[in-house]
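Sample entry (482 residues):
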Amino acid sequence: MASVANRILLLSSFSILIGFCSKGIAETDQTVDSLNVVLILADDLGYGDLSCYGQTEYRTPHIDQLAAEGVRATDFYVVAPYCAASRAGLLTGRFPLRNGMTRNPHPDKGDYNIDNIGIRADELTLGEVYQNKGYATSCIGKWHLGHKEPSYPVNHGFDEYFGILYSNDMLPIQIIENTEIAENPVDQRYLTQKYTDKAVDFIERNRDRPFFLYLPHAMPHKPLAASDAFYTPETPDDLYHDVIRELDWSVGKIVETLEANGILENTIVIFMSDNGPHFGGSSGGFKGKKSTPWEGGIRVPFIIRYPAFFPKGRTLSTPLWSLDLFPTLLDLTGVKLPDGLVIDGENIVEILKGNRKSRPPIYSAHNEETVTIRDGDWKLYLAKPRYLSARDLDPDWVDPTWPNGVTIIAQSEQPNSMQYPGIVPEKFDNDFPLFNLANDSTESVDVSASHPEVVEQLKKEYLRFLATMPQLANQGAVRPND
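Predicted structure, serialized as tokens:
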């Protein structure tokens, strides 16, 4: 198998061939000139962190209301259980091995390769789609697709940017506004509030023209932080609850602003998470956490509100993934895909309407490996699952990015490594287990031995998928069970 370094070289060398197409955008005959898009992305929010997904220790009434007025998906997946690959897939509709964004950029690790990772210039983002269509576009919050200026949001389709370019535990923790440093260090207790205020201002300034607002919040990524209005120091060990309640307030404020400006019904509103939860969150009873391919790492909440097209209060169980949003939003807003652009997502408009249930298989990735395939109720591991990390369930582990009041400003009350958010994964004898999620959503019983025909069929499906990336297949880099 090719080394990691060779794989990364391979991705950068051949990516241009896959993304060769022009970024020219054409409108379809069904252009909807007044339709806006608001895409709200939480960071490390677990499947069980919302009351409309079963949380009972606190309530999220505004997000619940969004679900009551829209479609709530029970089987929605992100393409990778960590930040950068998940976000790149969401904004491009393309698998990480296709768009080349397979690892997290990191500004303070002293590793040149990690420090210089960024989204490629030839990748087409949702921001560029809408900017080219004449929309006002804004990215407010965490970007994590590169922290060198060529990778900044303003160079990838966004008229405006305000936020921390990477995770809120990576130094220096500073807010960039467009291309300039606006705050350093950042008092994270007011991040959710600041991002919300910026989003409200953007909506109000652009209420008379179509806009695309991408709002990737910092929370509940560690370190957790909440403003004085939501922090409850009198009840210790519930900072996570405070943070989610403030996120819920933010969603309510965005919807309230859209309604007050008379544009709520002309706006597609989406709420989701980039991956599963870290310590202190809830996977909703699934196995694993962020950075793992178990359901707790890749299955996330997803709500879309657009009553003009989709039925109110619908709960949808068809498996979907984040790559579907790119072609779906283009279809809803009347934008034609550029000729020659290879995407991995499906247009799911008819699925969201309730007119179709079936769809092609979906996959998850980690670094340069394709890890899982889900087809219907079946989920097969194509690469060895990840179990516990060194920090998981270690009572002596100390987080080096704990708030210190100087470079990392947040509440000192933080979840610890004993607060594992999902079912703790125990190692299987078989490195490539198969599960029937309809009967076993906790991935407890490996049925590969009793269903060899399913294993073979899913491997064939994956090889068909791999064949669409021939440069990778020829290197044998990600073949199943290598």
